[in-house]
Structures are given as C-alpha cells and as structure tokens.
C-alpha cells in the first residue's frame, strides 16, 4: 500500500509542477488552485508512504517520479528540447529509482 501511495504522490507532483508552470507565477487562478490542491494531496500521500518506507527511499522515489514526469510532460506538451544529455540524465534518474525500489523493504 505504501508504494501505491508513493506512486500516486509522485504523479500528483507532476500535476502540480505542470500547473504551477501554467499559473504564470500564481497570476492565473485555476492553475494556481490546481497547484495548491495537488501539492496538498501529493504531500499527504508522501506522508502516508513514509509511515512504512524509509525516508531516503520515499523522498528519492517521490522526487524522481516528479522530475522524470515533468521532464516528459515538458517535452510532450510544452515543446521543451530533447537532447541526448537530457534523455541520458532522465534515464539515470529512472535507473536510480528502480535500484532504490529493489533495495528497499516494503
């Protein structure tokens, strides 16, 4: 259950990062509201996951899901650059997440 909460928390992190970008520095109401609501949900689910997962594992996986998801969303939706170095960096983050998952209890 902790891993499922952590996954959803990471997905919500992607949503709040994207909506924060869309809020234009919190000057647009709807994206600003989406940002705050999904942040609360993301932090709440992270807290639930941390009840049974180690801090380092939970936080690393949460931020990794958010980072890679925001990277992919930036490319797919916002037209951000795709370079070999950026893709390699994202691949290394994913490899680290997988290693963290297989080396952690729970």
Automatic annotation (TrEMBL):
PANTHER family: GUANIDINIUM EXPORTER (PTHR30561:SF0), SMR FAMILY PROTON-DEPENDENT DRUG EFFLUX TRANSPORTER SUGE (PTHR30561). The keyword Transmembrane helix applies. The keyword Membrane applies. GO terms for cellular component: plasma membrane. This is Guanidinium exporter. One of its GO terms (molecular function) is transmembrane transporter activity. SUPFAM superfamilies: Multidrug resistance efflux transporter EmrE. It is a multi-pass membrane protein. It comes from Tranquillimonas rosea. One of its GO terms (biological process) is xenobiotic detoxification by transmembrane export across the plasma membrane. It is found in: Cell membrane. Keywords: Cell membrane, Membrane, Transmembrane, Transmembrane helix, Transport. The chain crosses the membrane at residues 33-50, 57-78, 84-102. It comes from the Bacteria. Belongs to the drug/metabolite transporter (DMT) superfamily. Small multidrug resistance (SMR) (TC 2.A.7.1) family. Gdx/SugE subfamily. InterPro entries: EmrE-like (IPR037185), Small_drug/metabolite_transptr (IPR000390), Small_multidrug_res (IPR045324).
């Amino acid at each position: 259950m902790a891993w499922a909460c952590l996954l959803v928390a990471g997905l919500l992190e992607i949503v709040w990062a994207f909506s924060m970008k869309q809020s234009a520095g919190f000057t647009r109401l709807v994206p600003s509201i989406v940002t705050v609501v999904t942040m609360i949900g993301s932090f709440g689910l992270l807290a639930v996951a941390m009840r049974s997962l180690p801090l380092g594992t939970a936080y690393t996986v949460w931020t990794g899901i958010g980072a890679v998801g925001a990277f992919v969303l930036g490319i797919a939706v916002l037209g951000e650059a795709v370079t070999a170095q950026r893709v390699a960096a994202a691949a290394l983050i994913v490899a680290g997440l997988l290693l963290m998952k297989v080396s952690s209890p729970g």
